[in-house]
Amino acid sequence: MVERRHSHLRRALAAGTVLGVLGMLPLLLTELTYVLAVRRPPFDDARQLLAFVALLLTLPLGFAVVAGPPVALLLLGIGALAERLAPRRVSVPRMTARVVSVLAAPGIAVVVAQLFAGRRAQLLPGRHLVAIVLGVIGLAATYGAVRAVLAVRERLQLRRWHAGHALLLATGLLIVGTACYIADQRLLVGLYRFFHALLALAALAFSQLAVATLYAAWRPTQRWLGRMLMPRHALLVAAVLVTASCWGLGQVQRSAPLRFLLLRHATLQQQLLRLTPLARAGASLEPVVPAGAAAGAPTPPLRPGPRRSEANLLLISVDALRADHLGVHGYGRPTSPRIDQWARQSVVFERGYCPVPHTSFSLTSLLTGKHMYNASEARQRTLAAVLRRYGYKTGGFFPPAVFYIDGKRFSAFAATKFDFEYVKYEFLAAEPRVDQVLEFLGQQGQGKFFVWVHFFEPHEPYESWPGLVFGKRAIDRYDSEIAYTDRAIGRLIDRVRREHPNTIVALTGDHGEAFGEHGAYYHGNALYEEQVRVPVIISVPELAARRVAGSVQSIDLAPTMLSLVDVPVPAEMQGHDLGPWLAGEAPTSLPPAYFTIEDKKAVVDRDRKLIWDSAWGVTEVYDLEHDATERNNLSARQPALAAALRAQLGRALDEQRGRRPREDSDGEAQRLLARARQRDFGAVPGLLRLCRQGDAELRRQAIGGLVALRARDALTALRAARADADPGVAIPAQIGAALLGDRDSLRAVSGLVQARDDLPPALRRAALLALVRSPDARDRGASLTLELAAMLQGSRDIYQRLELIDALGVLADARAVPALLKQLDTVRTHLAAIDALGAVRSPTALPTLVQLLRTDVYTNARQHAAVALGRIGDPRAIAPLYEAARRELEGPAIAGVLVALEALRALPVPRLKPLLPQGAWACAAASCRIALGSSCGRREELLLLVAPQPTVKWAELGGALTVRCGDEVVGRLDLARVAQGGRDRALELPAVVAALDGHRGSLAIEVPRDGGGGESVALRFMVLRPLPGGAVAVAQP
User: Fold this and answer.
1) Could you give phi then psi for residue 980, rounded to 5 degrees?
2) What fold does the segment set 918-1035 form as a domain?
3) Torsions phi, psi of 993, nearest 5?
4) 691 near 706, Cβ under 8 Å?
5) Measured CA distances, 583 to 306, 347, 542, 547, 577 (Å)
6) How confident is the model at residue 938 (pLDDT cuts 50, 70, 90)?
7) Where are the domains of the chain?
8) Res 637 pLDDT > 60
9) Closest by CA position to 617, among listed 283, 288, 287, 286
């Protein structure tokens, strides 16, 4: 009897394994077909395609092997329980359905609770009664579904239905499962994770039922099915697939490109990978010393730089000045004729970079010669302070905006005004600013001087200046600002050359400016060339002009200017003296340039550039000589180059912390801790070693670093550290594990927060942020929301505030609105606060968001405000959105308005004439073309927005899109990155504007059929007619 039970149990486990695998196959085939045929992800080569397909197959099959036996045991137990509980008058199938319904009740309750978790659902009258009714319906549906399944099984077992019936039913089930999968791919992309999990589960369930139906019909007549379900065969299948899945997980952990492709395109893989602890950071940035190279090995001596010990110094910086928008760097528009003329008599460095694409950090770094983004708040010596000691009269002319970001951090510099003796600290246009400088210089007599002047004009909001108009778009007005500033700079340099000929002049920018080249606008959010490349031009009396083809940094200007006037360079300055290259040294000997923003770090060595996202372990490598727009990521195809650049970046990180040698373990530990404070995820492996091997104090600091980094691969170490005898280790470890989603830790932290009022502020904040993600976060109500809001109002740290804003958005509690509204006053929290107000969905935020939509000077703020209004869902927002649709000229803001109106079901916009395509796409061998039912020559501009899936209607196109008047190209948009998308398609819509005035012919759009590896995209066409204040019309091909 016991042996029979054991045999029955073994067969059940074997059946669960094999049928679980077979049931997964139809869903895998659906995903493979959809991803390759519809999503069409870009692959570097055939090898990456094969690896991607292998991962698509192995990971889910491994999951099926693991999940199949427990499910089989559960079904076996339910059947046995039903047989035991069933009285004489109740059949076993009925009792089975009752047992399953009772077991499913908690899950149904969770689903119903999620349905009513939103703010709008919470406002429904009688929602509790509706929830109860839905729960009862869910139980009844579960009961009916189980009865139906058992009835089908009975009919097949009794041969009342034959194989044809089973095939028909299985086909229907597979069609429903496929529909669920496609809905998961297409509906509410990036939103409502719970909803997508249910769709994936439904698709899997229907696939399993289809296979079970076929098995029940064919099993009595097909011996091979019986042999497959034998325990030894099932064990072999399990061993092979588990091994393959382990290989697959290793590939995912090691390969950032494959991980990105899976997470981006395969929804079933997304659900499975969320169940697997994946390491975010894929590689360390530790410097690699080549074999045989001694530390500190001598380098060839550089030629001495020029010396002008009696020279004056003039340092000019321009806000948001992109190098590629100056004629000296090849720009086509006449934005900088005066600077170009001066540059022809100066030394021009071809690739200059700012240390951080943020004004405060960049200018502070410029004037100290140090990387200030991650530096301590300790007082740093400035260029002006050093020169004053050597007899220079110093004058600084700059606006208060210099300290607009992180003002507290730079309060010491603000208090001393960078140590200048004479200061003009006010907002002033470029021309009157030059008058101030010239007045100061006229008072200096024969003494040496150092003057720094910062021009603010090119910074947003952009204005067109009379006589310097290039157009009405943002980029046109930006160029006008540059041209106006160029005119003022030319006048300043002419006067200085004439009246103070013995003056060294240097010009640079604090950062660049983005106009959607990589989906971003303005600055401070990426490290692509448009945001970080700035001019670096130096003019030295009696020094020959030349161009230097290498990478330098604006922080190099401080030590360079000191060396030029023969003043000793302070040891703490991290910039390099560019004197040897001013004198003609070969550019190949220039050191790499390093820059950073948030979790991203980058290094440029000549024409090779690496961008490292330490939060996600993603590497980008570009060949700037052949790929100036950074479209072709070489990290996977040239791993040796990527490794070499990562090593250089690691050395740069060490250098910016003071160039300390690596001679002892204590020094190494301190470097690891410093890297953790800089949010460098490459330090995580070292911190994990310190947790195991360090002394008590180092373990405390290492645990604190891991908690601050929120490092996913530290979860195991944090769980282990919870048992540490030292509370200084155990409590932070408990909180850190809770932040990473560990349920046991989350329960412990919940009690800890209630029991301990003496937690340090940083730990209490981390604990509350962990609780935000807990299932009972909303049950805590006002207490959690109000405490986080109070922390937000009391915090001066930008990154803490951004994290708190995000948490309040997740809680979606209207009590957070006052605190969020105050964050609108700070530039770096402005957009995050708008997004959080949209997530909270409180009507009290409506007037503020409408005001931002109407008056905010920043395009992206108007865009985010429009999207937030759509999320709130209040019909009162429709009228101001219509107004914005008719008034707005900037593509991103228009995109936000249209997406909001779509969410409110308020499209089309009244009184707007649509631009209708004529017929369908006409495709030849090389391209596809569509006519737009309009002709060129009128005062109109065509705005094309390119949106990732899903859209109302969309056309499958790819490559580089061109707008044509007849055969003449009047606009172009590179689509290579368009379809990558992101969390919020409304905020990531690239656009191209084509001016139709002055051109002849029929208006059309053309896209190559195989356009350089671009993905499938969805197109929305809009036309502005006439400008300004024209109508906006939408048409889908």
Assistant:
1) -65, -35
2) Jelly Rolls (2.60.120)
3) -115, 130
4) yes
5) 6, 9, 11, 11, 12
6) low
7) 2-274, 312-586, 599-658, 660-768, 918-1035
8) yes
9) 283
